[in-house]
Design a protein that fits this description.
Distance between the termini: 117 Å
Shape: elongated
Order of helices and strands: HHHH
Helix content: 55-70%
Strand content: under 5%
Length: about 150
């Protein structure tokens, strides 16, 4: 079926001179492009593009809500990290995931090292307990002094 010759319309600059082309395929492509431009109703190369706010308003409500939700979740995650940085939580000085020992280590040496570590830990726990008891005794003494001062002043 032969193509009908289109009406003469003013086309955008790249397609304006169809008759100047000696190539039949180029003329056919220009005709098809012109038809697409007519279907687009008033397409213009120089038309001002819509702004950001206009494009957002033209979107369906569900897309806008999902976009706001995604932005909100990202902001929540970033703010949580920022709050955690300022909370005073500190990473321990050294984390040991695995220890390496020499190949000729005996079972007795392993037991001795474990006992040394346990003795150090027990000594530290005992020192903490004594410090806690001393603090409790000091708090009781201060409370007794306050009670005596309150009784003397009344």
């Amino acid at each position: 079926m032969p193509l009908k010759k289109p009406k003469a319309v003013k086309l955008p600059t790249p397609f304006a001179d169809q008759s100047a082309s000696a190539d039949d395929d180029a003329r056919r492509r220009a005709i098809l492009m012109r038809r697409e431009l007519e279907q687009a109703e008033g397409f213009s190369w120089n038309e001002e593009q819509p702004g950001f706010v206009r494009r957002i308003r033209e979107q369906p409500l569900y897309k806008t809500l999902f976009a706001l939700g995604a932005i909100g979740m990202g902001a929540a995650i970033v703010s949580a990290f920022l709050v955690a940085m300022d909370s005073g939580i500190q990473v321990p000085e050294r984390i040991v995931y695995m220890e390496s020992w020499r190949g000729d280590r005996t079972a007795q040496e392993a037991v001795d090292e474990r006992e040394e570590a346990m003795d150090k830990l027990r000594a530290q726990v005992e020192a903490n307990r004594r410090a806690y008891e001393a603090e409790q005794a000091r708090q009781k003494a201060l409370a007794a002094e306050r009670a005596a001062a309150a009784q003397a002043s009344s």
